[in-house]
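fwd from M.: "can u put these together and see what the complex looks like"

so here's what she sent:
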Amino acid sequence: MQNDAVLTMRGIDKQFPGTKALNKVDFTLRKGEIHALMGENGAGKSTLIKVLTGVHEKDGGSIWVEGVDGEAHIHSPQDAQNIGIATVYQEITLCPNLTVAENMFIGRTQGQRVHWKEYEKRATEILDNLGIPARAKQELSSCSLAVQQMVAIARAVDMNCKVLILDEPTSSLDDKEVEMLFGLMRDLKNRGVGIIFVTHFLEQVYEVSDRITVLRNGELVGEFAIEDLPQVELVAKMMGKDLNDLADLEQVGAKHEATGEVIYEAENLSSSESRAFDFNIHKGEVNGFTGLLGSGRSESVRAIFGADRVTGGKVKVKGQEVKISKPHEAMKAGIGYLPEDRKKDGIIADLSVRENIILAMQVMKGFFHPMSRSQMEAFADEYIKALSIKTASQETPVGSLSGGNQQKVILARWLLTHPDYLILDEPTRGIDVGTKLEIQKLVLKLANEENMSITFISSEIEEMLRTCSRLIVMRDRNIVGELTGDQLTQAQVMKTIAGGEQ
Amino acid sequence: MKKKLDFSAIARSKVTWAVVAEALILLVCLFVRPEFFSISYQPSTGMLYGNLIDIINRSSEITIIAMGMTLVIALGGTDLSVGALVAVSGAIALKFLRWDVTIYNTPGDYTVYSFALVIIVPLVVCILMGMFNGFLISKGEMQPIIATLILMVCGRGIAQIITNGKQFTTQYSPFRVIGQGSILYLPTPIIITAVVVAAVALFVRKTAFGTFVESVGINRKASRLSGINAQRIIFIVFTLTGFLSGISGLIYSSRIMSNDSNNAGLNFEMDAILAVVIGGTSMTGGKFSLVGTVLGSIIIRTIVNLVYYFGIAAEATMAFKAVIIAVVIVLQSEPVRNYFAKRSSARREAVKGGAKA
């Protein structure tokens, strides 16, 4: 245990049914430092935080906290608070209809009587002290989001915390508000509070942090001083790639250079979840959106398909201007979309493989024009064979298939509608290697033989390099680059994702 | 390919257990009072009489409503307003069954409005009320239980307003046929129910509507991303349920030849939900069975008739009903079904093993 450490975690293990969420993870937080915890979604960041705050109990390992003799035993959020670990979550968890002071002291009053006068005085002191622009008697909902966030932090700080966890505190703030928050963070740091900063905004990490711990797949990649880890290397570490090992794997098939007409074109398209962007795809082209998870690539394709509420922009399909604000309208325009979250957005678990396969086609026909049973069986049979879906029968509920086969069923659902343009969002996630290759081969085959336009998204860069002839790179919800031809190398992709070094 | 009978699949089906439950109840009757099953023909009315006929006849109101309720529950919702809609439907029908008081001073076989209005207006109003529910739930994204609570509470009030709080009676014979007449030796409600069940079944299973309902009930987000207009599906289902409640209300008021804003359709929503659940459709939505629902409704009515037939004290009626329903529900519970499914597949394995040896 280092002397200046306020928090030491060693060999933390956490097992969830079916997955090892944390595997022997070490983490050290020193007094008066801002320590960024980095990793892609599912890397184990939030599990580690939850173990620390007592939401989950660890399966193995030890935690030491300054001021606690011996190992700290954290079994509930209350325990964590008592030993000085405070958390401020992404979503503000205060009561908007109470005053600032009430929010700061609610649940912490002692004795029978509540001395609101005194609390208001103390709240004013703390707010002044930290330079938070809010009055104690002001209703919380009348403050800006950033100030609300700061009030939450003030509440945490007043509980005499030694460790302050900020979980994605900046995701709903604008640039100016972020600056205000950073000011407060630096101030707290100078007072000796150790801050764990979880975010997916790379630039923000470099702006305030002193140290970075990177996790990947539930394992510790390493702890680095900020000056020792340039942004591009951080990206490589998060993705688990070695910069020196950039040899591309063998091709799964010939890539298709798109020359045909523009099938789909969007100008300034934006949705409730994505910022405005321009995009187009040619007939027979395979392109892809890349960027870290959370960079906005899924949100962009969801906007194309009308999966989220479309808020603006012009869309042309085959040169004709069309309005796409619902999935159904996108389907009519010849667009198919395989969603990122197979379980939540893809499969209808209790329906049979047959029903799942014919679903989109049936929707296109409308429910008054049902397909005959024999027709459905013929289609289902065709695609079960073509995609070699492993299922006991057509009537097996799709929920009982393996992940890869479920994915193929959804793929079949869309192929059956014969779209001109197919969007595949993470079709290879969580499925075995063999099936991954099959899907990549299929993508190239569809583009080459059937002249289908395909947008392919994958967290694994090699897959995208193998299949896409054009990559659109996103960072922090904006398109930051477009790579074609010789630029399609891992190094270039990572450089573009990290930004700064062209 | 010839399909083999798979006993473990049969044992797993909830509908199977609904059949078993009904058979058990009737079997008990058979031993205790065989005359329960006698059916006789009454030439004066041209109708068959008997307890079995009566059970099916009297279950009509619930069966008809439960057809809609099955779809509502398959979508993961509930409709609490059906009972109140029964009262509204009856109130409107009786409102149009007025006679000219300057000519007659007792109820009789006469009416001022045409019979078509007596039938059509209540149904249209119930359809509109169903659309109101559907609108709140689909466009307004309210929870079904809350949205339908509105009409459950105020529906009876509307019925009171329609009739100025009065109870009307009538002796108009065409109206009497709906609830008390006969067609092909059978009570009319049975025929109406058969037509409704057949129509709903055809609509749901011969179009893709049923699949879409199940799909939305199982996973609304994924259904939407496959292009299904979930809002429209929800709207149609609640509208249909309103319409069916209207039909049920006409049968009910024809049986009593009167309107009764306070008691018509009382607790029908609970019986309809119960019929659906006994019929094997899960309250969490998804796969549904219309046949199961019909059975469920008949089981509920069988219990009620038994109570009357055996002269069980009126005070004990509810308790008796509760006990039998509890047994039925336990028979259908997951662990029990799995137990029997396992036993039957184990036996099949044993037979296979024996054949090999």
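replying to her w this: Residues 245-251 of chain A have pLDDT under 50 and may be disordered.
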